Amino acid sequence: MILKSSAFGEGDSIPSKFTCDGENVNPLFEIKGVPREAKSLVLIVDDPDATNGKTWNHWLVWNIDPHTQYLSEDSLPQGGVEGVTSFGSVRYGGPCPPHESSAHHYQFKLYALDAEIKLPRGSSKEEVLTAMRSHVIGETVLMGMYKRKG
């Protein structure tokens, strides 16, 4: 599988528009190569560089239609159900590292599953990961960087 964005390439800087310093909206994504047997997709956006070694969750979306080719900017994907982020909200929360920190790595992880996840909106990342267990049939990661100015 391939996950691409016209906003940034693998390892490139994420434009501030998609962060807490800008419009704080999700970028456009293109999806290719989803296995034919996939029944749903899961997108998890996180920051493994967050403080105290604890990964910060920026967006959790599951039950995305496996035929989806594009995730539009500033929108919930077709069929998608959102989980709670580390910000305590149930929506996309863009990169927002502390001003004094070095650039953080942001992982946009896409998974193809052979089933849909039976969880309600607002579920946690741990609940999603548990529900995904033994159902992942494909995965890919797009990594972007972000460092705040000032």
Provide the fold topology.
Layout: E1 2-4, E2 29-32, E3 40-47, E4 56-64, E5 70-71, E6 81-82, E7 104-113, H1 125-132, E8 136-146
Antiparallel strand pairs: 1-2, 2-5, 3-4, 3-7, 4-6, 7-8
Pfam family, one: PBP
Organism: Candidatus Jorgensenbacteria bacterium GW2011_GWA2_45_13
Protein name: Phospholipid-binding protein, PBP family
Outline the structure in words.
The chain is 5% helix and 33% strand. It is mainly beta. It has a single domain (2-146), classed as Phosphatidylethanolamine-binding Protein (Alpha-Beta Complex). The strands form two sheets. Strands 6-4-3-7-8 form a five-stranded antiparallel β-sheet, covered by helices on one side. Strands 1-2-5 form a three-stranded antiparallel β-sheet, with no helix packed on it. Strand 3 (40-47) and strand 4 form a beta hairpin. 35% of the residues are buried.
